[in-house]
Amino acid sequence: MGTARLTIDLNALAENWRALDAMTEAETAAVVKADGYGLGVAPVAHALARAGARSFFVAVAEEGAALRRALGPGPVICVFSGHMAGDTELLRDFDLVPMLNSIDQMLRHAEAMPDHPFGVQLDSGMNRLGMEPAEWVALRELALRLKPELIMSHLACADEPGHPMNTRQLQSFREMTEGLDIPLSLAATGGILLGPEYHFDLCRPGIGLYGGLPFAEAQPVVFLDVPVIQVREVEPGETVGYGNTWFATRPSRIATIAAGYADGILRGTGGGLVAHSDGHRCPVVGRVSMDLITVDVTDLDQDPDHLRLLGEKQRVDDWADAAGTIGYEILTSLGARYTRDYRE
Ligand SMILES: *Cc1c(COP(=O)(O)O)cnc(C)c1O
After folding, report:
1. Where do the Alanine racemase C-terminal domain residues begin and end (predicted)?
2. Pocket of ligand 1 contains residue 154 by CB under 6 Å
C-alpha cells in the first residue's frame, strides 16, 4: 500500500475523443506517441479504438510496433518520424505507414519498399519535420506517382487562436497541396479548435484526448492519489524539508506523502501545487524530494490517509502552471512507480 495510485479514466478518454470528433466532418485519428502521452499505449489505444478511432499516430517505428502488437491488424498506424535508416523491417512487419519527411527518406522508401503505403509530411513553416516547399516541388512528381495515403503538416502556434502564424501556415499548406486528390491533414487538438478550414480530411488530436489544454472542455482523465506515511506537529519557526525553504508561521500539522520527483512531480515546482483531501485544499510546502512531498494539513479536521494530487480540483494544466511547464510534460513525466488503475 506504499505506492501512489494513478487512476486513468478510459471512459473520460473515449468521451474526449467523441467530443473532438463531433466538432469536425473530417476523420478523427488519435495521437498515442510517447506511450499514449505517458498513460500506457495499450489500454489507451484499445479505448480509443472502441470509441471509433481508426487511425493512430506514433513518433517512431518502435512505438508503432508496440501499438500494432496491442491493437492487432486493422487500424492504420502512422509514424511521424518517417522512414529512418534501419526502419524498413519494422515498417513492413508491423504494417506501419511512415510519414516521409525529406528527399532522403523518400528515396530510401521508394528503393526499399515502393509498394508499401506511406504519407508525406510537409513543412508549412514550423521548421521541425517535413519537406520544405522547394524540396516538395522537386519531389512532388515522384511522390505522387507512388500514391501517398496522406499529406500532412503541423501547426506551430495552434494553441493561440489569434496568432498570425496559423493563417500563414494554412496558406502555405494550401499552396503546397492545391489540386491534389489525396487526403490532407493539418490539425492537432489546437487546430481542431481553430475551426473547419483547418480540418481538411483528417485531424490528429493528442493532448485534448488526455484532458489537457487547449481543449478546455475536456474531461479529466488522470487522477493521482498519494498515501500519507506520517503526520507531525511543527511549531512556529520550525522548518520543513531540504534547504529549509519553508517554515511554520503557526502551529502546523505536516503530512509526508509517498511520491516525489522520481514519480514525475518536478522538483522545480514552485508555490501553487496543492493536494486535496475530500475537496479541501492543502498546500504543498517545502521542497519536493525524490520519493516524498510534505503537505500542510493543519486546516483539516482529521489526519488524512491519502491526498489527491491530480483530479477534478487540480487538473494536469494547474499542476503544469505551478511547475512552469505544459500539461504535455506533466503527463509524459508520470513515473513508472505508480500503481496504475485503468477504469472503464
Ligand atoms: C504530437 C503531435 C500531434 C498531437 O498534438 P496535440 O497538440 O497533442 O493534439 C499531432 N501532430 C503531430 C505532428 C504531433 O507531433
Report:
1. 221-343
2. yes
Residue 104: pLDDT band with limits 50, 70, 90: very high
Residues whose CB is less than 8 angstroms from the CB of residue 226 and which lie 6 or more positions away in sequence, other chains included: 4, 5, 257, 258, 259, 275, 293, 306, 307, 308, 309
Q: Ligand 1 centroid to 62 CA: how many Å?
A: 18
Q: Helix 133-145 and helix 164-177: axis angle, to 10°?
A: 40
Tell me the domain boundaries of the chain: 10-210, 222-343
Fold: same for 10-210 and 222-343: no
pLDDT (0 to 100) of residue 166: 98
Q: What pLDDT is attached to residue 2? A: 81
Determine the 3-state secondary structure of 70 from DSSP. Answer: helix
Tell me the whole-structure pTM to 2 decimals: 0.96
Are the CB atoms for 187 and 161 separated by under 8 Å? no
Per the DSSP assignment, residues forming a β-bridge with 335 are none
Crossing angle of helices 41-51 and 10-21, in 10° steps, is 50
Atom of ligand 1 nearest to the CA of 158: 7
| 328 CA from centroid of ligand 1 (Å) | 10
> In angstroms, what CA-CA distances link 228 with 64, 131, 277, 307, 329?
39, 52, 11, 7, 26
Active site residue ranges: 33, 242
Query: Is 290 assigned a ligand-binding role in the annotation?
Result: yes
Task: State the CATH architecture for 222-343.
Answer: Beta Barrel (2.40)
- The DSSP symbol for 43 reads H
pLDDT at 272 over 90: no
Q: According to the annotation, is 128 in a ligand binding site? A: yes
Q: Is it the case that residue 336 has pLDDT exceeding 80? A: yes
Taking residues 37-64, report their average pLDDT.
Answer: 98
Ligand 1 centroid distance, CA of 55 (Å): 14
Q: Are 39 and 336 within 8 A, CB to CB?
A: no
What's the whole-number mean pLDDT along residues 266-283? 91
Number of the ligand 1 atom closest to the C-alpha atom of 189: 9
| CATH fold for domain 10-210 | TIM Barrel (3.20.20)
